[in-house]
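note to self — DONT lose this again. spent like an hour looking for the file last time. sequence + predicted structure for the chain T wanted, 210 res
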Amino acid sequence: MFKNVFIFDHPLIKHKVAILRDKNTGMKEFRELIEEITTMMTYESMRDVELVPVEVETPLETVTQYKVPDDSIAIVPILRAGLGMVNGVHKVFPTAKVGHIGMYRDEETLQPREYYCKLPDGIENKTVFLVDPMLATGGSAVDALDALKKRGCKKIKLMSVIAAPAGVEKVALAHPDVPVYVSTLDRQLNENGYILPGLGDAGDRLFGTK
């Protein structure tokens, strides 16, 4: 596996992914599970976060403590399914600004197409969480990372719940400086570019559109 790729192997995540995959899991529970898994992944992915010293007054004395700098985190979901992960990151960083990158997949070529990009001011100075539940072919993730870097972003972390080996490899090779955090690495892609065993279309299951 590539040095910039981190596959989680946590019993609680495995438990939640098992329920997530079930075709009988309803929209509300599916959405809650995506958020819960994202929150756990956020904790782990921030082990290397930069901290700044602050003086804190306890009821007894003043002490030096360490905090994540204010306004240093941004969340950028790849539309539309990435929206399902935003609240999971917000549970850890409730004041994080949110940008959006819109991508769709050409059904014939399977190539991503960007149709929207709106990012917070000063995003080039923030640690950016690029989030998308499914890392399938890797095309959308690579293009979204290209778009963020083009706009000056230097510290980016990509988080996906389910990934295929082909997608992980494509991102890792195209952006070796970007840590890739994946909850679960699945077996392969099918002929239509869907992850197997996967969990179906994450966007449809999040928003009840099918």
